[in-house]
Design a protein that fits this description.
The chain is an alpha/beta fold. The protein is 31% helix and 13% strand. The strands form two sheets. The chain has a five-stranded mixed beta sheet. A three-stranded antiparallel beta sheet has the order 5-6-7. Helix 2 crosses helix 4. The two termini are 20 Å apart.
Length: 254
């Protein structure tokens, strides 16, 4: 699928937990596919810390996978993919942040990013007792949102700055078109490419009505009301990414 997409000149960025590259041949296949960037989600650099969030995951397996992809990229003398080490900062792993730069650099990756956590799931957008709150880091620098000191709730923005309804369509595996990648279960379908063309859906009356409602009062759209973009501190990549390090001067952030 990646190879096909690259033949159509489509930029491909994918994220993985790193448990799928058991063989060197798989790493070489990834590099040969032409994928632009691969993000390894590694939220701990010790097994104890890693498995606190990545339940049943094996850090040793992930690190071996990263090394295989790095080796494959070098042996094939390829400029892609950008190999990206991603660390989501949480309360139980923030003590490891100061070690990350050296740790990632020794693996041979191209970039390291420390991302802030969205501790809320769908339906918990206004809850002060959401399950994920226990993961919020103590250091404010690594907290995504600003919180109301009176009740601990997030601070809503009057206008949601998201532009995804205009320039970020999400195509699901079955041909359904979704307004956002925060709707992985297709609860808010815009249309079906098995029945209509992309142009008919994306520039059709139904989607135009959704865009109008979003601009008028996004809080009436449940998906948008609970989105990270709707709250102070979580409205763009420069806010949700706390820190980025590049180890290869020829690459750019993906």
């Amino acid at each position: 699928m990646i190879t096909y997409a690259k033949k159509q000149d489509i930029k491909i960025v994918s994220s993985t937990n790193g448990h799928v590259f058991a063989k060197q041949s798989q790493a070489e296949q990834l590099v040969n596919s032409g994928i632009d960037s691969i993000i390894f989600a590694v939220d701990g650099i010790s097994q104890k810390t890693y498995e606190r969030y990545r339940t049943s995951g094996k850090l040793k397996t992930v690190l071996a996978a990263i090394k295989r992809v790095v080796a494959a990229k070098r042996s094939l003398d390829s400029t892609t993919p950008l190999i990206h080490f991603r660390f989501v900062a949480m309360r139980h792993n923030e003590h490891e942040i100061h070690k990350l730069k050296e740790f990632a650099q020794l693996l041979g990756v191209d970039a390291l990013s420390i991302k802030t956590l969205n501790p809320y799931d769908q339906g918990e957008c206004h809850s002060t007792k959401a399950d994920g709150l226990e993961f919020i880091p103590e250091n404010p620098r690594y907290q995504r949102f600003e919180y109301n000191p009176k009740d601990g709730s997030r601070i809503c923005l009057k206008r949601n700055p998201c532009k995804r309804l205009w320039n970020n369509p999400v195509l699901l595996w079955d041909g359904k078109l979704s307004p956002c990648d925060f709707d992985p279960h297709d609860n808010y379908p815009l249309g079906d490419l098995n029945q209509q063309s992309f142009r008919e859906i994306w520039w059709g009356t139904s989607v135009a009505q959704v865009r109008h409602l979003f601009q008028k009062d996004y809080q009436k759209l449940n998906l948008c009301a609970g989105c990270t973009y709707a709250f102070k501190g979580g409205s763009c990549a420069t806010e949700t990414i706390a820190k980025v390090h590049f180890f290869n001067n020829s690459v750019k952030y993906q």
